[in-house]
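Running low. Got one?
___
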Amino acid sequence: MRNAAPIMAGVQFDAVVREAVLIGDKLRGTLEGNAIADQLFALVRKLGTQMTVETVGIMVRGEDAYSRTGISGLGILYDEYFADASSLGLTKHFLENGLSDVAYYCALREAYPDKQTYDFLSGQFEFVFAGLKCVPDDRFSDKFTNRGPSAILDYLTPADSV
């Protein structure tokens, strides 16, 4: 029966992620979307050790780029299961799949293993990865409070232009 647990966990997680993908942009700001996001976050907190690079990729990929909700889930994964998250090779995965902004976020989290998601709220970090750097303005903390860690991605700019 123990071998069935990871399979059942994967099925449960995949079902919630598929619902989130189907809702798409309506995931944020709707009752149905908020309920799906809450389920997603609860599953990440409960089953984080069982997540695979493929599952994280599905969770994070949005319609055109990345999902803000997926990035919040990724932040929870790093907060709750740092060793597992950092062992998945997410930075490489997202670079290879055209999401260099998400790769930046993964590299940032892995460069600061002792920090939790909201430790980045101040925007006071000097970090360059894949030619990108986060250059926050005076509204960064407000945006971070509303958008979660995806606000970091909103402020990415080519490092050589700063």
